[in-house]
# Entry
Amino acid sequence: MQKVRLGPETLLYPMPAVLVGAIVDGRPNFMTAAWCGIACRKPPAVAVAVYQERYTLKGIREKRAFSINVPSTSMAKEVDFCGIYSGRRKDKSGMFDTFDGSRLEVPMVSECPVNLECRVMQIVEVGSHVVVIGEIVECYVSEDCMKEGIPDPMEINPLIYSPKTQTYHKLGESVGKAFHIGKGVKG
# Structure
């Protein structure tokens, strides 16, 4: 198979488009981030890369807490808005129906099917961005996105971002059962 060399790029698929929430200057603020993923299982932790100049980062640093809100594809316009406009210039505190975390002072978006309440563990400077690593202290999932007591990714319908095309996407169909379909492969 022929490969095309692109040089160093941030191409890791899929990239979730999430809303990062924090209290900044006394009010809820949300920014869009696509460079976000699970960092650890025990303790459960998430990592999100945030541009150094982002307004939300100010709140994360001050409160040492933040939320990761996983929007569904129906929220694409609102998510894009939160990525286009800074909380310095546009008050985003009234954009969503929010609720506070049960353990930390972090705003979470009720409309998002999944919300992670996070305590800052570490902030790592990495050039133009910082990587905020947060311990997930509580996880919230909308009831209608649960199937037999387990979050259903098709019901969550998470918004996915493609960096090179700068387009939003959704998940496709299941291709097999993890930790099962590989058993028939001869190694």
